[in-house]
Amino acid sequence: YQIDLRYTGGAHMLLMLSLKFGIIPLVAPIGVRDFDIDGELWVKLRLIPTKPFVGAVSWAFVALPKIKFMLSPFRLFNLMGGFVNIREAVGKVEGDFYARWRSNEQFPF
Predict the structure, then answer these.
(1) Where are the domains positioned within the chain?
(2) pTM (2 decimals)?
(3) How many CB atoms lie within 10 A of CB 21?
């Protein structure tokens, strides 16, 4: 099945960013809000003859989805409000990662 997926909601997440410089660790809470995703989803069900009649579910995006979000470090200010270029750079990195993944290319990490 192919399903158009659109989520526009009030999801709020808290990411804990941990950086270690030598012996001094730094942990910074990063708030994620206004999460929005738009894409086409491919869903595959493997049916079985007994209840619950579904043995496995696989899903994948048909193409790279459009994802929008707002970051606020320490929940104090909007990190991405005035930095449109950061959004474009993140999109390019995600696109490059997705293209490498699709071509089964080896990653340096």
Answers:
(1) 2-79
(2) 0.51
(3) 7
